[in-house]
User: Fold this.
Amino acid sequence: MIILGDLNDVTEAATTQILHGPGGSEIGTKGFSLPDQGDDARLFNLAPLIPPKRRFSRVFRGNGELIDHILVSKELLPGNPPQTPVVDSHIDGLGSLPSISEQPSQRRGEPGSDHAPITATFDFS
Assistant:
């Protein structure tokens, strides 16, 4: 299972954590291999796999935020340790991202998106 897109909230926000549960079993932690407590459909946020300096998908008031996410089920991360995909935020794809504010109408008529695409490349060979 894959859920991806603009969740409009950062990784640490309660609204995002509803999808991937509390901390302690993320990719790269020792709890990753432990069974979840009653949730057969646990999702893993691929955000920690994005290089730290690139871990944002929009710029809000001059600060980078990651509000676009890719969450996957454990079946897409086989192996122990898990076989992880290559994940990146393409923040430099079309030049620099514009910094936005609370006023959504400020960018009306401007070309391009204020979000950078987040991608994950899986190797199933």
